[in-house]
Amino acid sequence: MINPTAFRELVIAALWTGLLAGLLLTAVQQIQVIPTLLQAETYEEAAIVSNMENSHEHHEWQPENGLERTFFTAAANIGLGIGFALLIGSIMCLKSRPANWRIGLLWGLAGYLTFFVAPSLGLPPEVPGATAAKLADRQNWWLITVFDTGFGLSLLAFALTRTNKFFGAVLLVAPHLMDAPKPEVPGSAAPVELAQSFINATVFANAIFWLAIGGLMGRFYKKDL
Amino acid sequence: MSSTPVLLDNDQIQARSDALKDRILPAMLAAMLGLALVYGAGFAETAQLHNAAHDGRHSASFPCH
Q1: What keywords sit in the KW lines (chain A) (predicted)?
Q2: In a domain, B16, yes or no
């Protein structure tokens, strides 16, 4: 039924892409993302010590700081990279023309806008220790935004009629008209400058991550059909 | 429910079945696998997975704890 060769080629390209992009992201994160996050954590821990009842989430296993923590972060980044590469690859698979790295970069840009930029406009990346609205509400808003943005961008790029392109633009804007869930009392254990520096760092790191995923997937995924 | 019958010649039927097994099914399977991985790395609430992926989730702007 399914052509096993076509599926295998896609998966192998995604595995290599995710591995390389995940390792690249892990390296880029060490420049600013992780140092800022660790600094914010010292504020968070200080706040927890002064307010012991809230320390429940720290009883579970967590990787030791240092090599072990970096190892698990790299594993998570690679897993995420393979997942995103499979999504981009499945679109490339549907297209009749084979991809190349330049087309891949465009898909990477689309992924960056869909999965990072759009949700970050309402829910900016947060350092640990910041107050936030209920997790389920934020996850719902995140999912709706990602779905709307992805669908809206595809309509803008590929729809044949003006009406459909317009509908795509509406979808892009819609999630930002209904406000992202905000905490009742906004606040953060870490100083504002640290939170801002974290946002800047993630904007850069995720751009590199997505462009690497798109470009590498376009390069590695050769359909010989 | 009656729909207008569309007669396809053998080449068209072959082309459609090729598109299904060479493109559509592999793409769907890969997309499902991809979503499962993104869910595991970014959303799954198991404490172990959350703590292992913690820094990655904050960095990727996933809603996290």
Answers
A1: Membrane, Transmembrane, Transmembrane helix
A2: no
B41 contacts in A (CB within 8 Å)?
76-77, 79-80, 83
Measure the CA–CA gap between A177 and A14, rounded to whole angstroms: 35
- Rounded to two decimals, the ipTM of the complex is 0.90
Residue-wise pLDDT for B25-52, tens only, equals 999 999 999 999 999 999 988 888 999 9
**How close A140 gets to chain B, by Cα (Å)?**
9
- Within 8 A by CB and 6+ apart from A114, the residues are A146, A149, A150, A153
Tally of structural domains, chain B = 1
Tokens 């590199």 sit on residue: A208
Measured CA to CA, the distance from residue A68 to residue A91 in angstroms comes to 35
To the nearest whole Å, the CA of B10 is away from the closest chain A CA by 18
Structural domain including B41 reads 27-65
Residue B17 resides in a domain: no
Q: Nearest CA to A105 among A219, A216, A214?
A: A214
| pLDDT at residue A200 tops 90 | yes
Q: Measured in whole angstroms, how far is the alpha carbon of residue B8 from the centre of its chain?
A: 30
DSSP states along A104-152: HHHHHHHHHIIIIIHHHHHS----TTB--S-HHHHHHHHHHHHHHHHHH
Are A3 and B22 a contacting pair, CB within 8 Å? yes
* β-pair partners for A130: A188
Query: pTM of the entire structure?
Result: 0.91
The 10s digit of each residue's pLDDT in A78-118 is 999 999 999 999 999 998 788 899 999 999 999 999 999 99
Mark which residues 18-47 of B lie under 8 Å from A by CB.
21-31, 33-38, 40-43, 47
Q: Do A107 and A217 contact (CB within 8 A), yes or no?
A: yes
Distance CA A112, CA A185 (A): 30
